[in-house]
Each structure stands twice: as C-alpha cells, then as structure tokens.
From TrEMBL:
Similarity annotation: Belongs to the peptidase C59 family.
The protein, known as: Choloylglycine hydrolase family protein
Source superkingdom: Bacteria
Ranges that cross the membrane: none
InterPro entries: CBAH/NAAA_C, Ntn_hydrolases_N, Peptidase_C59
Sequence ranges assigned to domain Choloylglycine hydrolase/NAAA C-terminal in this UniProt record: 93-392
UniProt keyword annotation of Hydrolase present: yes
Organism, scientific name: Muricaecibacterium torontonense
Key words of the record: Hydrolase
Entries under PANTHER family matching the protein: CHOLOYLGLYCINE HYDROLASE (PTHR35527), HYDROLASE (PTHR35527:SF2)
GO MF annotations, alphabetized: hydrolase activity
Amino acid sequence: MKRCANLSINLVAITAGRHLQLSHPLTGKMSIELVHGKRFCEVLVATFKFFWASIILGNDPGRRSFTLSSRGASQSVPRSILHLHPVRSVSMCTAVRLTDKNNNLYVGRNLDWGVPFGEKPLLVPADWTWQSRHIGAIATQSPIIGMGLLMKDMPLYFDAVNEAGLYCAGLSFAAGFAHYNDADPSKINVTSFEMPLWVCSEFTTVAQVKEAAQNLNITNDAFDPSLPTSDLHWFVADKDQSIVIEQTAEGLKIYDDGFDVLTNQPDFQFHCNNMRNYIHLDGDWTPERTMRNAHLTALGVGPSVMGLPGDPSAISRFVRVALLNASYPDQDDDADNITRLFKTLNAVSMVKGYCRQESGDFEYTIYTGGFDSTTGTYRYTTYDDPAYHTFSFADAASLSAPANLK
C-alpha cells in the first residue's frame, strides 16, 4: 500500500481511457478517469483522510487531482493523474440489539429518509406460502411481524421478527457499496427485497442464518419496474448474537457484530476499524486532576467523552450508538429495557433541518421500531407521534394472508 497526499489507498484494476464507478465512505460515488493514455494495472482508490473531510464540509471546489505512482503496470507508466469527481449521497438508518439479565431480546431500528414510504405495521401469519423469485415456494414457520409495505400481496419489510425471536432489518448501504448479482444456479438466490421475509420464514436463530448465508447470493432483481432495487445491508439478531450481511463487488461477507449496532455505508469492517480511534471514551466521571503544580477540576459532566462525534453521518452515528449501547447501565425490568432501547435509538435520530438530501428534502426519523421478546410485542413511534404504538404475534393469529394494520 502506498500513501499520497494523505490518502489511504487500495488497489483495483482498470484500463486507461475507461471510467470506473467507485465509492467513498463520506462522499459516495466517484467517477475515476485515467488521464494519461496508457494501460494502468493498479489504480489507487481514496478511502478516508483529511481531504475527504473537507469535501463533506463543502470546502472542496468540486474537482481535484492527485499524482499517484503505479506498480506492476503492463507498460512502463511512471505516473498517472486521476481526477476524482465526488457525488454526495446521504442516507440514514440505525439498528441496535441488547439483552437483559435473563437473555431476553430487545432489538430495533430507526428508519430515516426525506419522505415517508407509506410504511405500516405488517403482519404475516404462520404457514403462509409465498413465492420467492428464485427459490420458489416458501412457507412461513411462524407468524412474522414488523414494519413495511404490502405490494401486490407481497410483504416488503423494512424490519421483521418471527415468533422465535429472530430479527432482520435492511439498512441503506448506498453510494456504490452494495453490489447485487445475476442469479447463480449454484447459490441460494435471494433478492434484496426478499431478505427480511426469507430470513424470518426459513430460520429461527442467527446461527442458522449464518450457516445458510455461506452460499447466499443477493440478486439484482427489482420487485417491479417502478420500484428499482434498494442498496442495502442487513442486521440479523437474536437473543444470543447479531451479524451483518453485506454483498459488495468483492463478494458476500458475513460479520459477527460484537458492537450489536449497525448504521450505513461504508462497509462494516471500516466501522470496526474506526472504533479504534475512540477507545479512550468511557463516560466515567473525572472530577479532578493535578498537572505538575496545577490542580484542575471538571467544569461539569462530559469531559470523558469529549471527542465523541456528533454529526449525522453513518460513521459518527455508529460510534455514538456503539458507545451508548455498551455503556448504558443494565436494567432490571421489561419497561426499563424498552426505554433503554428507544432512548439509545433516539440518541441518533434525525430531526428536520439537520441534514438535507440531494433532493432538497430534510432527512428525518420516519419511525423508530423495537421488538421485545419478553412479551412478543413490537412497538413503534413516528416523527409526529412519540407515543408507543404496539402490536404482537397474537394480532397475526386470525390472518390467512399478510396484512397491514391500519
């Protein structure tokens, strides 16, 4: 790995004179063009340093060049110039898992966007058969509840959980990170819009999902010509663990999620490495300190978490929610753990006026939803109504087909 102008760089291959769509964790997609007319076998791709921070703050003029040395070129090319054209893309979502002392599961997510999708409580009964685009007929093993849309009799879940307590949520993984493939006859082919329903229909534990996903292929099928594919990665959780499933151009990857949280792009491994920058944060009270002959007392609470990022980017939200999920004191009863889950998600919720999308709409938390395995209840709040709205598996008992609750 080489370094140039404070860029961390990885190697990919392109051909001179061709454009390649790559992605960056802060700015989104970049069109990269090799200016010199030579074949260039290794192109160095920026990931995250000071220059990119200036782009996200709006200080970049919109086009910059860097001279990068090549290695292993098929022709002698001492230097080539890459022009990087950032395309800003912002999308927000956060998911969190926690358990109580009795190993009961509390799990949920924020759905953040600039406009609502028409999402409602979505219930699927047990023993209901649906047609997977590639697998064929699949029968649900138990009722499934969550939030989503019912389109053409097909449940499209933003997040879902089955009666065994297996939860799956799709979160935005945009800016060129998500990569879907054509169907592969040697793989288990599942579309992006089927993922939560497939997980909750076929499995009862994360361990089962993890094993099956070793042969999983997320396909590029759109649900409908009017509803193109969404770039997503998935947070899958039960009372014992959580995992992250991502499919990029490098292939499908399954990560054990020791933080029990997920936000958005860049990839999960980036977030894990980035957390190493914040291991000094602990939330403890630091009342006083002596430095040589100077005695200092704290101005108030908070010095031990100074440096905690507060911006709405996925990178910063991951740090905040991971720290809070780890440091929130254990709670004894169901009500307090429900409060813990929702307060943790509220700590990274979006308020209108905070972050504007390219469309001009302000991003905001459309809903916060959470499942409590103690009572088998799903609760949600909306931007305009902070009161809990509840439904449970019992509400699906009388159904013969999927239904949105009014």
